[in-house]
Every structure is written in structure tokens, then in C-alpha cells.
Design goal:
The protein is mainly beta. The chain is about 5% helix and about 50% strand. It has one helix at about 1-20; strands at about 45-55, 65-75, 80-90, 95-105, 115-130, 145-160, 165-170, 195-200, 200-205, 210-220, 225-235, 240-245, 250-260, 260-270, 280-290. The protein has a 14-stranded antiparallel β-barrel with strand order 1-2-3-4-5-6-7-8-10-11-12-13-14-15. It is globular, with a radius of gyration of 20 Å. It starts with a helix and ends in a 13-residue tail after the last strand. Residues about 1-20 and about 295-300 have low confidence and may be disordered.
């Protein structure tokens, strides 16, 4: 019985380690920094953002993700520093991490810059035994306590950008740290992910702008997943848009800025078989821009 319960624990860990581990964000084009450390410091202001995602509402123990980030440039605009804290909860499992980032920005031409960034920190993966019903209540392998492991984390990326376009790529979880509970050996590891992103700011009129964007995600052995979408901006103050994520959902998103505050909301219409059990996914974003009063309003959007 002990071996059977231990196997169940390893299944939990291996499931998290062998597929898409990192959470999805439907508003990836707005809070892109948490996906690529090279984006830190690419704008002329310091910004803080909070993402709150409630996935597959209606399904018990469905994923819930909370992210808080802060990043900005140094005084000479050649470097960017920042960090983010996140928690991803799915059933009895929880991932909590903190990362600090550094980026260096190089001027390629008068209007184009290239940055390279790295981020490192710690990740805690935990299993709450009190949320698992055991046939053998005396099994020490999965007691009613919280079992956890803390491992180092590291990611890197690059970002080529201007006021009109951006292209970037990043690789989170490059260390592929081993996840081991108790004193039992296990082959479960964090999987290295690969992200590629691109977007363009297309000016339609003096007040309207359209921003198409794309995000491609890959982690072995899961199939390649991509997000393709876009949003219309009105005077860089109000936006509305949509996106499609293959194998998952269609997304609608809206948002606005008021003074130095940002508010965004997205809703995912599930396209997989989970649509028979879920009413969809909600994601709320709140942001604040810390800019000096004498700074001019940035020509690029608050994203």
C-alpha cells in the first residue's frame, strides 16, 4: 500500500514535470515581461502588474494562477532590472516561485534596440496531503501534511524591438531541476520550455492602432502550442481584441488605462472537451506605471 501511494505521488510530480508546466496567460501581449526577462527595462518607465487567472471555472481543483511583477530601466536606459512572484495552484499541488531579472540593451540603429536578459530564483513545488483522500490513512508516504521541495530556477532570453515591432524568444526553467520528495529517488524534473513571440504596431489613423501578435510555446513531449491574436487601441487608452490558442480556447479581451493605472480583462471560450464541464476561464490584470512627471507620454502603448 505504501508503494502504491508513493507511486501516486510520483504520478502527480511527473505529470507536472513532463508536460506544459508553466501557466498560460491570455493577456500575454500586455504582461510579456514574465515570459521573457529581456523585456525588462525596454520601456521608459517602471511598471508593476498583477495577473489573476481562474482557469476552467466549474471544474473542481482547476488551476488558479497569481503573478505580481515589477520592472523598469536604469537611469541611463542601458539596463533593466526587475522581479516577479508567482503562485500556480492545481488541486493538491502548488508551485510558488520568485525570480529576479537583469537585462542589457544595445542600440542597433536609431530606432531599433536589442536586449539580452537572464532571470534566476527559487521555486517551491508542494503537495498538500490534506486534499488527497487515502485508502490507508496511516500511510506515511502521503500524510495529511504539506510535503514540498525547493529548487533553483533560471531563464534567459533576447528581445529585438522598436516603436513599431518586437520579436523575442526565451527559455524558462533551463536548469531542469530535479523534483524529489522524501528520500526516494525519482526521475521527475522541471522541463525546459521555449517561447517565441512577435508583434507589430500598425497605425490606422491618428487615434486608432492595431497590434497583431503571436506567441509560440514548446515543451517536450507536449505538442507545440501557439496563440495568435490582436487588439485595437484607441488613443493608447482603451483596447479590445481577441486571440486563438490551438488545442485550448478562443479569447476575448478588453482593457483601459486611467492616468497611471491599467485594467485588463480576458475571457477564454474553451474549445477542448473540457467545454462540457467548464464555463470558461477568467483573467484579470491590474497595472500601475511609475513615471516621472516631466517624462513625455510614451509613443508605444502601455503594454
Amino acid at each position: 500500500m505504501i508503494k502504491r501511494k508513493l507511486l501516486y505521488l510520483l504520478v502527480l510530480v511527473t505529470t507536472a514535470a513532463g508536460a506544459q508546466q508553466l501557466p498560460h496567460f491570455s493577456q500575454y501581449m500586455i504582461n510579456d515581461y514574465v515570459m521573457n526577462p529581456a523585456i525588462g527595462g525596454s520601456r521608459d518607465y517602471v511598471e508593476g502588474k498583477s495577473n489573476n487567472r481562474y482557469q476552467w471555472v466549474g471544474i473542481t481543483d482547476a488551476p488558479r494562477t497569481y503573478v505580481l511583477s515589477l520592472q523598469g530601466p536604469t537611469k541611463n536606459r542601458k539596463m533593466g532590472i526587475g522581479g516577479y512572484l508567482y503562485t500556480d495552484i492545481t488541486g493538491p499541488t502548488r508551485r510558488t516561485g520568485v525570480d529576479l531579472s537583469y537585462s542589457y540593451h544595445i542600440k542597433v540603429s536609431e530606432k531599433i534596440k536589442l536586449s539580452f536578459g537572464v532571470a534566476g530564483g527559487l521555486l517551491q513545488f508542494a503537495v498538500d496531503g490534506s486534499k488527497i483522500n487515502l485508502r490507508d490513512e496511516g500511510d506515511f508516504a502521503l500524510s495529511n501534511g504539506l510535503q514540498s521541495v525547493i529548487v533553483p530556477d533560471f531563464s534567459a532570453g533576447f528581445y529585438l524591438y522598436s516603436e513599431k515591432f518586437y520579436v523575442g524568444a526565451s527559455a524558462p526553467q533551463m536548469l531542469r531541476s530535479r523534483l524529489q520528495f522524501f528520500d526516494y529517488p525519482t526521475s521527475s524534473r522541471l522541463s525546459e520550455h521555449y517561447y517565441a513571440m512577435a508583434g507589430y504596431h500598425l497605425k490606422i489613423t491618428e487615434d486608432f492602432e492595431f497590434e497583431p501578435s503571436a506567441l509560440v510555446k514548446f515543451v517536450n513531449p507536449a505538442p507545440v502550442q501557439y496563440d495568435i491574436g490582436g487588439r485595437f487601441n484607441y488613443k493608447q487608452r482603451v483596447w479590445i481584441g481577441g486571440a486563438y490558442r490551438n488545442l485550448d480556447a478562443f479569447t476575448g479581451l478588453v482593457g483601459f488605462t486611467w492616468k497611471n493605472l491599467l485594467f485588463g480583462y480576458s475571457y477564454d471560450f474553451t474549445t477542448s472537451n473540457l467545454k462540457n464541464y467548464s464555463t470558461g476561464t477568467h483573467e484579470v490584470m491590474i497595472g500601475v506605471k511609475f513615471a516621472k512627471k516631466e517624462q513625455p507620454e510614451p509613443s508605444a502603448s502601455f503594454n
